[in-house]
Amino acid sequence: MPRSKKGRRGSSKPGMKNGVKGESGPSDDELTSEVLSHCSSASECTSVQEEVVGGEQVDEQTAQEETEDKLKQCIDNLMDKSAKTRLAGLESLRQAFSSRVLYDFLTERRLTISDCMERSLKKGSVEEQAAAATVFTLLCIQLGGGDEAEEGFKMLRPILTAILIDNSASIAARQSCARALGMCCYVSTAEEGEDLIKSLALLESVFMSSYPNKEGTLPTPKPGSPALHNAALQAWSLLVTLCPASRLRVLLDLHIPKLQACLQSSDVNYRIAVGETIALLVELGRDIDEEFEVEDSESMCECLKSLATDGNKHRAKNDRRKQRSVFRDVLHYIENEDFTEEKIRFGLESVYIDSWMRKKIYDAFKEILESGVRHHLQFNPLVRDIFGLGPPLILDATVKANKISRFEKHLFNSAAFKARTKQRSKVRDKRADVM
Question: Per residue in 185-202, pLDDT tens?
Fold first, then answer.
């Protein structure tokens, strides 16, 4: 700023005037002039700084208002007669819900959005149905899994179910509905277990059609069915993490032998989903019984070892690499209870993926939130609660100084996650006899 710079230049060394050494210091008038100049400069700096800060606040508020105006327009577009306009509105909402936390904005409009989602699911095209199921899932995550999300889930659950079990519906729409049923049921905080029971049974009815027949032969998959079975199995395995021990024992006995047979599926992605689900079920079995063992574990380990070293040339290179990597991890866990830990960084924090259950839950959120998963880990109270991270951090200069060690944070995250999972399971123990 010109005046400030002039003031600094005017502050000559004592006894200096215009660069020429004088015999005495500056006069009282000169000192007074310098002080006034300095004060004037400081005053100007302060006023400009306040103006900038005020400008930032105005800009932030303006940006917030512009964002909300755009979202309101997207919601209006959901009711447009043009299918193209509705689909564009759904895509814009999907991106916004994935990348930001919008609880306050959405709480007031949740019923309107839910009504629009129901209309799109009932009357929309294949693309519109799939997009609507995804946006509704994101809405439930945004609402924090509380009463608002539960209310919306009860409203849309029948139509999501109808599409999922409709063999004439498109595979893409049925996949999206399977994911929606799994995630929306997972984030629901309802104490009664009816939703969980129904969702588990419904998803089982979909992927169990890939199980071997009485002769032990796998059915010939119909076009698109492996992708649908994959989505249903992934959603089901997410909900299994909420089951009480009494229900888990039944599921382990029923599904592990059948899933082992599905390791021979012709679809690589379904094989991988099956392998990860087996590892998850074994981990849950060991949690409730330290002596838990898989029936005919030698046969299973041989099958896993074959998939972990598969070099079949007629399969795509990337598929072979992905399959080998996953099944090496599954085999190591089944044989040695060894899990390959992963660290997810976001902001100043990190979360440790140190179990198959934790991996399943993180992968489910990552699939629906995509690149926005780290933002939600940082700012979404529901997601932070699920991973035992506590309330969102208030970032200031003291945060770095108070950072705990990596090991302490790891222990805290793991303990909080396990405590929360046990608490959710205890809440659902009321339905153990029913299940």
Answer: 999 855 457 789 899 999
What are the pLDDT digits (tens) for 189-242? Answer: 554 577 898 999 999 999 999 999 988 899 998 999 999 999 999 999 999 999
Please, is 23 exposed, middle or buried when counting C-beta atoms within 10 Å of its C-beta (0-12, 13-18, 19+)?
exposed
For 17, phi and psi rounded to 5 degrees?
-140, 115
**Residue with the two structure tokens 């099958």:** 303
pTM above 0.90, yes or no: no
